[in-house]
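Posted in: Structural Biology > Protein-Ligand Complexes

Title: Requesting predicted complex, zinc ion in pocket

I'd be grateful if someone could produce the 3D structure tokens for the following input. Sequence and ligand are given below.
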Amino acid sequence: MMERPGCKRRPRPAKRQSLPEQISRVPETARFIRTAAPAFFREVSKDYARPVIPAPLRPRPELWRDQGLHAAWLGHSTVLLQIDGFRILTDPVFSTRIGLSLGPVTLGIKRLVEVALPLADLPPLDLILLSHAHMDHFDLPSLRRLENARTQVVTASQTSDLLRVRRYARVQELHWNESVRVGPAKITAFEVAHWGARMRGDVYRGYNGYLVELGKTRVVFGGDTALTASFKRLRTTRPLDLAIMPIGAYDPWIRVHCNPEQAWQMANDAGAEFVLPVHHQTFRLSREASSEPVHRILQAAGSAPERIAVQSVGQEFHL
Ligand SMILES: [Zn+2]
Ligand SMILES: [Zn+2]
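-- Reply #1 --
Done. Output follows.
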């Protein structure tokens, strides 16, 4: 729902017609005003008053040693990854609200929890990995603030038009099963079960999961996905160290967002040793309680809860 806001620019009223007259001519708008609008605006004003709680933990990437795999969950699908000194940030969302920006104001959903590391405190990044153009993954205010001449971007097909590409070192789009090298890392896009339209009509946009390979380390970033067999194809004889998997926003959106048990299954299909659950606890996008996904994935892990790499916003993982 957040990802496909139906908000369109309001048509300019014709002369001598009041605004209510104008908008009531549009049947969908009229229906909305009659039925859903009072509840909608009640929710919006409640949401404006609600404070955003601080992240429970604050990662300290400045203490990470150069060698090895280090990760910190900053909230929603934003993960800071460092593999042998190479730094990657997935789907950066640092804004308090996600949605449509109209000048300084953003119409959209407000965070439940603050981002665990302010954007200004991020270490220099080598790569930004963008799974798809939905607003809770592809946050333009955050991406603008991250523009700089040393950071490359890898994104899904037909999404780079949303970026100011010349302000990064390089921007590359990947279709499914295509790979690129970024410094010492090999990045391969793979098919997930989701959709890519940011608004309603731009259904041509791509949506990816990614496999990151650097030295002996292999990490999967699942993006957003429903249950799909495509994670099975990531399994090789080489171990997969970490799978960053979405586990929230499945009720009632199970056709496009997997539930925790399905995320666990897909990570196991890929042969992942550790699972870093994301896409929960940060924005209210669905009906399930915000604490439910993490409880369910811990239950799914059964006798191996140590395979769940993090449980709280701001938590770090090291290997
Ligand atoms: Zn999405
Ligand atoms: Zn999402």
